[in-house]
């Protein structure tokens, strides 16, 4: 089954063609938590590989690779979105299925831009940070 | 979700992770995830739902 509908794929290809720097998807595989009932016999790791491979196929500047149990990944499967291969703290834990595939695509588009896309006031406020800040955003595919 | 990613890309001090709640039920239960998006800052649940950029940045630093 294709990841995206034809018109969506065309749009994503256009966005990825405009990336100004390469973006790597590091797929992290390892022991998985048993998900809630209803997930059936889904091989989440294999599906994560399929999703990231499919996303990377949509742009020449997007690459992907797999690591088993890489350091710094508390949950599997996961994907780290890395501008120019650098870990900048952008990660997706679990499968970016359905609606959430847009979050992964959006992360790639944002990572492919050399300058931040937040407004000046937000950048100024974040610039005052004197400690590390860890954001976790819980999402679902629907 | 994208707003959190954009914050991480804008600041070396910030990291942002999307967590698929259904795939990690134990963690979701521990953090009382009943609605999404649920925003957790430094391990502490803060709020549910989308907010504009300025408000998002204000809240994560509050």
**Structural class from helices and strands of chain B?**
alpha+beta
Unreliable stretches covering 5 or more consecutive residues of chain A: none
Mean model confidence by pLDDT of chain B: 95
Structural class of chain A: alpha+beta
Tell how many strands the DSSP assignment of chain B holds.
Answer: 3
Low-confidence stretches of chain B: none
Task: Please state the CA-atom Rg of chain B, rounded to the nearest Å.
Answer: 12 Å
> What's the alpha carbon Rg of chain A, rounded to whole Å?
16 Å
Q: Hey, which two chains have the biggest interface? A: A-B, 51 and 43 residues
What percent of residues of chain B adopt helix (DSSP H or I)?
25-40%
Can you give a write-up of this model?
The complex is a heterodimer of chains A (about 140) and B (about 60). Chain A is of the alpha+beta class and about 140 residues long. Chain A has helices at about 5-15, 45-55, 100-110, 120-125, and strands at about 25-30, 60-70, 80-85, 90-95, 135-140. Chain A is built from four helices and five strands. The longest helix of chain A has 13 residues, at about 45-55. Chain B has a two-stranded antiparallel sheet with strand order 2-3. Chain B has a domain at about 20-60: Glutaredoxin. The chains are: A alpha+beta (about 140), B alpha+beta (about 60). At the A-B interface, strand 4, helix 3, helix 4 and strand 5 of A face helix 1, strand 1, helix 2, strand 2 and helix 3 of B.
Keywords:
heterodimer; A: alpha+beta; Glutaredoxin; B: 62 residues; alpha+beta; two-stranded antiparallel ribbon; 3 helices; 39% helix
How is the topology of this model organized?
The complex is a heterodimer of chains A (142) and B (62).
Chain A: H1 6-17, E1 23-29, H2 44-56, E2 62-68, E3 78-83, E4 90-93, H3 101-111, H4 120-126, E5 133-139
Parallel strand pairs in A: 1-2
Antiparallel strand pairs in A: 1-3, 3-4
Chain B: H1 2-10, E1 14-20, H2 25-30, E2 38-41, E3 44-48, H3 53-61
Antiparallel strand pairs in B: 2-3
């Amino acid at each position: 089954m294709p990841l995206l509908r034809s018109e969506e794929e065309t749009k994503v290809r256009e966005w990825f063609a405009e990336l100004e720097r390469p973006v790597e998807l590091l797929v992290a595989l390892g022991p998985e938590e048993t998900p809630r009932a209803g997930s059936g016999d889904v091989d989440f790791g294999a599906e994560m590989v399929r999703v990231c491979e499919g996303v990377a196929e949509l742009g020449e500047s997007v690459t992907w690779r797999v690591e088993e149990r890489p350091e710094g990944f508390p949950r599997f499967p996961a994907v780290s979105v890395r501008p120019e291969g650098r870990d900048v703290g952008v990660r997706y834990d679990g499968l970016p299925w359905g609606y959430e595939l847009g979050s992964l695509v959006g992360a790639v588009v944002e990572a492919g831009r050399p300058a931040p896309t937040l407004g000046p006031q937000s950048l100024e406020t974040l610039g005052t940070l004197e400690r590390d800040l860890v954001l976790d955003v819980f999402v679902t595919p629907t | 979700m994208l707003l959190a990613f954009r914050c991480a890309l804008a600041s070396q001090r910030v990291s942002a992770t999307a967590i698929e709640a259904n795939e990690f039920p134990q963690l979701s239960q521990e953090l009382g995830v009943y609605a999404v998006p649920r925003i957790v800052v430094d391990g502490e649940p803060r709020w549910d739902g989308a907010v504009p950029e300025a408000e998002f940045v204000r809240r994560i630093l509050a």
